[in-house]
Every structure is written in structure tokens, then in C-alpha cells.
TrEMBL record:
Keyword Magnesium: yes
One MF annotation (Gene Ontology) recorded for this entry: oxaloacetate decarboxylase activity
Function: Catalyzes the aldol cleavage of 4-hydroxy-4-methyl-2-oxoglutarate (HMG) into 2 molecules of pyruvate. Also contains a secondary oxaloacetate (OAA) decarboxylase activity due to the common pyruvate enolate transition state formed following C-C bond cleavage in the retro-aldol and decarboxylation reactions.
Upper taxonomic lineage: Bacteria, Bacillati, Bacillota, Bacilli, Lactobacillales
Protein name per Swiss-Prot or TrEMBL: Putative 4-hydroxy-4-methyl-2-oxoglutarate aldolase
EC number in record: 4.1.1.112, 4.1.3.17
Assembly information from the UniProt record: Homotrimer.
InterPro entries: RraA/RraA-like (IPR005493), RraA/RraA-like_sf (IPR036704)
Signal peptide: none
Cofactor: Mg(2+); a divalent metal cation
Length: 232
């Protein structure tokens, strides 16, 4: 088997009930409960206008920079509800997917989202789509179709590792990866955190909240509070 030109058709997938429950949770709460890690680099931004959060299992694509032959293979082999996650090896010179391929993914494969660590094109149309689309940028430059590339192997996207079947969650803040094998264990922690976070926001709104912990924290971190005007 030639490494670099492999397409794996099977993945271990998260439970569908978990996916439905994670759909109700903000990406920020999930990241906070993973020690404030797991979010993709902020260069990967939401480019469309989905009505709901993106949530589903990762269908990973590792393509040659600026080439989309392997992404075309993903159009053939992906499944309904998948999140197509594309490792473009940091290249930002050529769009690797645009409206034509996105239309197939949306209307024929019914994927739940697309995440590209690189440029896309046809943004005048795609920016109004309900399908969650995340990418780094846009450019008119198109891709080549030569390969190599691989499907459903471990990849790097947005400076984080993504394995096939990992749970991907995305909203206006960005994209978070939840390791498939940790998703069930993490869920109740995030749900509890969300309740506490909402209560905190409500207390700040109605004036009953406080930041009494702050003075001690600043003192322990050796901050100096100076009751005077700054003078160079």
C-alpha cells in the first residue's frame, strides 16, 4: 500500500446521540472544558451563514497543497452528516474548493459542514449558504488535479490534529475538535459548565455578580495598584 495515495473507507464514529447533544453547546464552553485548548487557529473563519451550529464526525482529507484531486474523491466517498476537514499543508495561494464542489456536497451528499485550512472561491454565492463553511481566505486562483493525497488518515488542520471520526463543532467563534474517544466523558462536564456560565452572565446582567476574587489574584501575581497618574 503506497503511503500518500490511500483512501480509507471506514472510520470509528461517535454516537449519534452525542452529536445531537453537542449541537446545543457553544464552542467556547467546549474549549474551556478542554483546558482552553482544542480550537482551531483563528485564521479559519466562518464564511457562510448557517442557521445552526456545525456538528458531526470528521471526514479527513490530506491533499497536496493547491491540488484538489483528493477532495474530489471525498465527494464520492463521504456520507450524510460528515464534516469534511481538509489539510492543505498551509498553502494559501490556490482555492481548493468552490461553489460547484460545494453544491455536490450540500445537495447530493448532505454533509454537515466543510472546514478548509486554505482558500476557497465563489464567495459571492457561498457567503449566503446555510451550509457551514470555514476557510482561511478566498482567491480566484484555482487548483490542480494531480494528487497525491489521502482520505480518513490523521491530519493537521488549523494547528490541531484531527483524526477520522473526531467530533467537530463549529459556530461563529470558530471550530473545535473533540477527540472521538473523549466525547462521551466530556459531555456532562461541558453541560454543567454551560449552566454555570449562563448563571454567571445573568448575575452580571442583574448586578448580583461580583469579582471579589480579583484583588487577591492580582496581589498573588505581584500587580502594583498605583493611585497616581502615569509619568514617563
Amino acid at each position: 500500500m503506497q503511503v500518500g495515495k490511500r483512501i480509507f473507507l471506514k472510520r470509528e464514529l461517535p454516537d449519534k446521540n452525542l452529536i445531537e447533544k453537542y449541537k446545543k453547546l457553544p464552542s467556547s464552553n467546549v474549549a474551556d472544558c478542554m483546558n482552553r485548548r482544542g480550537a482551531m487557529a483563528p485564521r479559519i473563519k466562518l464564511m457562510s451563514k448557517p442557521k445552526a451550529e456545525m456538528c458531526g464526525p470528521a471526514f479527513t482529507v490530506h491533499n497536496r497543497p493547491g491540488d484538489n484531486l483528493t477532495i474530489y474523491a471525498a465527494l464520492k466517498y463521504c456520507h450524510e452528516g460528515d464534516i469534511i476537514v481538509i489539510d492543505n499543508e498551509g498553502d494559501n495561494t490556490r482555492a481548493v474548493i468552490g461553489e460547484v464542489m460545494m453544491t455536490w456536497l450540500r445537495d447530493q451528499r448532505h454533509v454537515a459542514g466543510v472546514v478548509v485550512d486554505g482558500p476557497i472561491r465563489d464567495i459571492d454565492s457561498l457567503r449566503n449558504w446555510d451550509l457551514p463553511i470555514y476557510a482561511v481566505s478566498t482567491t480566484p486562483n484555482g487548483p490542480y488535479k494531480e494528487g497525491p493525497g489521502e482520505i480518513n488518515v490523521p491530519i493537521s488542520c488549523g494547528n490541531i490534529s484531527v483524526n477520522p471520526g473526531d467530533l467537530m463543532l463549529g459556530d461563529a467563534d470558530g471550530v473545535v475538535k473533540i477527540a472521538r474517544e473523549k466525547a462521551a466523558e466530556l459531555l456532562p462536564i461541558v453541560e454543567k459548565f454551560r449552566q454555570e456560565d449562563e448563571a454567571k452572565a445573568a448575575s452580571f446582567h442583574n448586578g448580583t455578580g461580583n469579582i471579589d476574587w480579583l484583588d487577591e489574584k492580582l496581589k498573588n501575581k505581584d500587580y502594583k495598584i498605583i493611585d497616581d497618574i502615569y509619568r514617563p
